[in-house]
Write the structure tokens for this entry.
Amino acid sequence: MATIIRINPDNPQERQLNQVIDVLNSGGIIIFPSDTVYAMGCNIHHPKAMKKLADIKGIKLEKAKFSIVCNNLSHLSEFTKPIDSSIFRLLKQHLPGPFTFILEAGKALPAAYKGHKTIGIRVPDHSIPQKIVELLGSPIASTSIKDEDEIIEYTTDPELIAEKFDKMVDIVIDAGYGGNIASTVIDLTSGEPEIIRQGKGEL
């Protein structure tokens, strides 16, 4: 059964966050808030957790396109190919924010991402995922929680989310109601920004 941890987004307590870190380090799956919708994630360096995340989504890990959630742009050189100054300026201008930027994948990606030619990078403008990444010392893999309802795409109530994923995840962070508009996805692999999905962020 999932543990529900209520965390104040305006003042996240390190004691509560350390519970989340322990779960991530032991290969657990968490559900966390962001500046867009609630998302599910795990430690990118834990292969079994990555496979479990893919299983929950009902896809094969090698086909999974999990974004990498960072707390700043310092991880770019590790996970992406070198980018030119104009792209870096664009990223710096819009992050943290409700965007997922698709970049060419670098060689130092964790094993679960091997074979991927591109990678989605997220730096949410939200204190909780930022603090989690900071305390963990590395980014987390992330995928939005979609709803089966054709009209309501994303569930905003963390209690309903906890009910639905109770036996699948280890921790659900309750930081109050989430949003119901996902991030704007922008492909930067051609050197020119191409909007793949218009979401919350305006480029």
Observations:
- The mean pLDDT is 92.
- The two ends are 40 Å apart (CA to CA).
